Each structure stands twice: as C-alpha cells, then as structure tokens.
Amino acid sequence: MNRLQLYRLLRANNRLSTRRSPLFEQSKWAKALVFFGGAVFALYLIIYGILIAMSADGYAGMMVSMMPMILVFDYLFRFIFQTTPGVMVKPYILQPISRYTAIECFLISSHLSGYNFLWLAMFLPYSIIILIADAGFWAVLTELIGCQLFIMLNSQVYLFFRTLINRNVLWFIASMMFYLIPFWPLLMKFDTDTFAKMLDLYAAFGRSGWLLPVLIVSIVALFFINRSFQFRYVYEEISKKKERALKHISQFGFLNRFGLIGEYLKIEIKSNMRNRAMRTRCIMSLAMIIVFSSLTAYTDIYNSTFMTNFWCIYCFALFSVTSLTKFMGQEGNYIDLLMVHEENIIALLKAKFWFYTIALLIPFFIMLPAVFKGKFTWLMMLAYMSIAAGLVHFIIFQLAVYNKQTIPLQLKVTNGSNFENGWQIVIEMLALCSPGIIVSTGFVLVGETLTYILMILLGLAFVIAHPFWIRNIYQRMMQRRYENLEGFHSTRQ
Questions:
Q1: What is the distance of C-alpha 135 from the center of its chain?
Q2: pLDDT in tens, 89-109
Q3: DSSP string covering 188-211
C-alpha cells in the first residue's frame, strides 16, 4: 500500500469513526450551527474582499499587505474549527505502519481542510475586481495563490503553538508575540505614515517574485517540524511519561464545617488546580477577562454605553459559562460512585454553585481598574455580578440534565472536540444572551439606574432560591440517569 492509498484509507476511517460514534446524533446539531456560521463568515469575507479591492486602485499586492492582520484573526478562529492531528492519530500509534505516516497524512489533511479554502471567499472577489481594473493576470494569479499559501502556512503555525498551549497555556502569550512581529514598525513608531509605509513594504513583497518560493519553502520546513513535534507529544501523552507524584497535598480543613458540601468543594478546588483540562479552561477565561477589561479601561475603543455594558456582562458571564459548558463531563469519569448514596448529586451541585459564585469575585477585582477609570460604575458591577451568580448560573446548571459525555481530566493533545446536542446549544446561548436582553429592555423601559437595581434583586432572588431549583435539576437528572450513564460510559477514554 503506497502513501496515497494509505491517506485515502485513513480519511475514510476518520469519517466512519465519526458516523459510528454514539455522539453522532449530537454532532449533527453542532455541525448544522457550524455550517450556518460558516455561511455568515463567508458573506463577511466577500464584503471585506470587495472593500480591500476598492482601496487597491487597480494594483496587485494590497491583499498581501493585509495578511499580517488576517493571519491573526485566522489563528484565533482556528481554536474553534481546528484540532491537532494527535486527535486522529491516537488509534494508529500501535498499528504496523511507519510511526510518522499517520501524522503525515493528517498534516496533509489539515492543509486541505474546508476551513482553509473558506478564505477564498475573500481572495476571489478581490482578485476578480483588481483583474478587471487591469492589474495584470499573472500578478493577480500570483497574489491569489500566495494568499492561499499564507492560510495553509498559518494552519501549520497554529498546530505548532496549539500543541504547546495544550501543555502550558502561557504559550498563548508567546504565540501572540510571534504574530506581532510583522507589526514591529508600528511598535517602534505608531502613526499614520508608519502604517502606510508598512503596508507599502508588504505590498511590494506581494508583487515580487519571492512571494511563492518563500511561502513554499516555509510550508515544507514547518511540515517536517510539525511531523516530529506532533508525534513526540502524542506519544508522550499516551505513554504517560510525564506523570509526576504530588509533593504537597492541600487539606482545605476550613471547609470541613460545611459537611458533605465542603467535601465536594474540596474536590472542585483540587480539580481546577490539578486537572489539566479544567485548569486550562479557567486560565484561558481569566486571561480573556484581563484582556477585555484592560482594553475597556486603558483605551478608547469601547467608550460607548452599549460596548461598556456588553463587556462588563461578558467578563462576568465568561468565567462561569466557559468552565461549566461541559457540566458534569469531568464527573462522568466517576459518576457511578456519585450514584451510590441518595442525593449525593444535590450536594455536588450546591458545591459547584457556591464555588463558581464565589469565583465571580476574581473578575470583579480584575475589572476594578475600569471602575477607577470611570468606564464602569459600582452599581453596574454589582448588577452584573448578581445576575451572573443568579440567573446565568440557573440557566447553565440546566446542562447537568442533558450532558452525558465524559471529558478526560488530563488528555489534551489526543482529546477530540466535544459536540453538543440541541438542548445544550440552546442553554448555552440563553446563558450568554439573557443578561443582554434584560439590560436592553430595562434601559428602554425604566432607565439605567433602576435596571441595575432590578438586576441585583433578580440575581439575589435566584441565589436565595438555589436549593429549590437545584433539587428540581436533581429530580430531572434522576429521570434520565440510565440514558446519561450509558453516554458517560460509552465516551470514557
């Protein structure tokens, strides 16, 4: 069997594994949303492609000059759409084939993914318009191919950094510093003339004969780097070579006074400290809160009333929604033990509620500079923290009824995407959108100050009533316990 035949076989196996997965029906909901989002994304790309072409004045190279900015957005979008090859390679590690062959095949598939070619929705309209404006056929064709090669190169850069980020989230900062390299003239001197000269420099490179050779050599070099790099960390993760014994065990004895809820609080705290998957989600959400609050506090980008309220809501809701999207997924690893004693789940849900409610103090303190700068008010902060602790937690906790997929606690490189079913998607959208709907309606009907007061009262009402709605969630979970247990068992790794 030659490489081409093996590549086709692995692609076919990957499609079959998706269709045979017990979560295939759930995946269809997520895929439908992905296709809808892709169509909207393509429409925006077409619009931007036309706008860039209109500013090109009939000369090739303008799209290449915009690529540093495009590649930053492309890199961030890939966290949603693209996984590392290790996800698909894991089943073939012990097969009687060359240890790099599977990695090579899946690296090639990452170059030929549909997401990469989605960017043609921007490049093709741009190329057609400047071709009509007499930019020259070969110049236009070279730039079109070059822009697509930039996207393929970016997919390899993403794979490299994503593997490192899976091991330590601080690598995300290093990756963003890497993408700032093309902007070094602006970092040295930030003004309009410097920006224009930077664009002219990159546009001239796009019109030169060096564009395609440099890109092709870079893609080939990074391909071989990733081939070795990806296999090293996939093999290391599967073989557990980096497991280390704990040197110190925190007792958290002050929680003993809370009885069973205190014991589950200890588990939640230790899980977020020790388990790589949970810890990474927490750190990423806190990093995003720091970025958004800093932009609001120290820049004039978000000075409008709508944007300041939007980011204040989002920063409070982000931590809980990000951490609880896979609600009960971690507990799926030992859900059978939780079912041994009656109403154990109630104590677990109450512990999670209080843990993530108290954790809202973290974004509260992070956003204090925005309060001191006058961007946020104390009443606004209290209103959004209350609505996140009450209403947002009430909505997102409903996922405990419908989530039935086990999430590995430590695996990162070889852990695939976790698709949601229809109810999960609806609940997540409600949790993110409901505070904004309440704020918008309140501002129109009763004004800003009274809206914040009503939000505080509404949030506190849900907090005070949490024993009642948690018991309701528990009763609905028990009605679906056999279905959920089957899902947890079938998705354990």
A1: 39
A2: 666 666 666 666 777 777 777
A3: H--SHHHHHHHHHHHHHHHHSTTH
Helix (H, G, I), strand (E, B) or coil at 3: helix
- At 102, the amino acid letter reads A
What pTM value is reported for the model? 0.60
| pLDDT at position 21 | 55
Token pair of 360 as six digits: 């809202």
The Cα–Cα gap between 59 and 45 comes to 20
The more confidently predicted of residues 470 and 21 is 470
Contact (CB, 8 A) for 397 and 324: yes
| DSSP string for residues in 229-288 | HHHHHHHHHHHTTT----S-----GGGGGGHHHHHHHHHHHHHHHH-HHHHHHHHHHHHH
* Measured distance CA(402)–CA(386) in Å, rounded: 25
Tokens 């073989």 label which residue? 239
How many residues appear in the chain?
Answer: 493
Distance, CA of 30 to CA of 53 (rounded, Å): 34
Mean pLDDT computed over 127-132 = 87
